Fold:
Amino acid sequence: MSYTFSRRDFMKYTALTAVAVASAGMFTGCGENPNQPTAVFNNADASVTFGGTSGGFLGIGASHDKHTLLVDGTSYNGTTLTCAFAHTPVTEGTSSASKYYRIRVDTEDGTKYYVGGDESGTVKVKALYEASPIEIGKNSTLPFKNTVTVTGLDTMGATAVYIQYFPRHNALNNDTDSYSDVFATWNITSLFNL
Structure:
C-alpha cells in the first residue's frame, strides 16, 4: 500500500508546521526588548545598546549606539546620587540633556518617578554633558561623557532604584510621534543600603 503525498496534504502540513513554530514562541518567551535594554550596575561598568539599525524605523538603533554607566564617577553619599555616563550616539536627535533622564524608585506602596529638568519638586535631576560629537546626517562612533546628578532623593521604604534614559522623545520634525516606549534602564539598587 502506498500513499501519495498530494499538493493539498503538502499545504496542510506546511500550515500546521508554521502554526507550531509560531506557537512555540508563546511558551519559550521572547527575551529582552531591543527598544528597552536593561543592565544591572554592581561595581562594574554597565552598558546597554539599542537594537535595530541606524536609519531604521526608529532611527536610534545600531550596535554602536552605546550608553555606559561608569563605575568611575558613579556614587551615592546619602544626599546626592551621581551617575557618570559615556554615550556613543548613533543619529541626530539623541540627547543627554536633563529631560532625557528619569529616576524610578520602587516601593512596597508603588512606584515613584522623578523626571529630569523638573524643578518644581524637591528631587532635582540634572545632567551636565559635553557637546555631542555627532554631525547632522552622519553616524558617530565617538563617545562623549555626561554626568547626571540627583539631589533630594528619598529612598525610605524603597525596594529598588533605577535610572532610565530616553534617547529621543519624538520623531525628528514630528512632535506628535512619541518614542516614550524606547528607553534604557539601569538597576542602581547596589548604590543604596536597601
Remarks:
- The first helix runs from residue 7 to 28.
- The first strand starts at residue 38 and ends at 40.
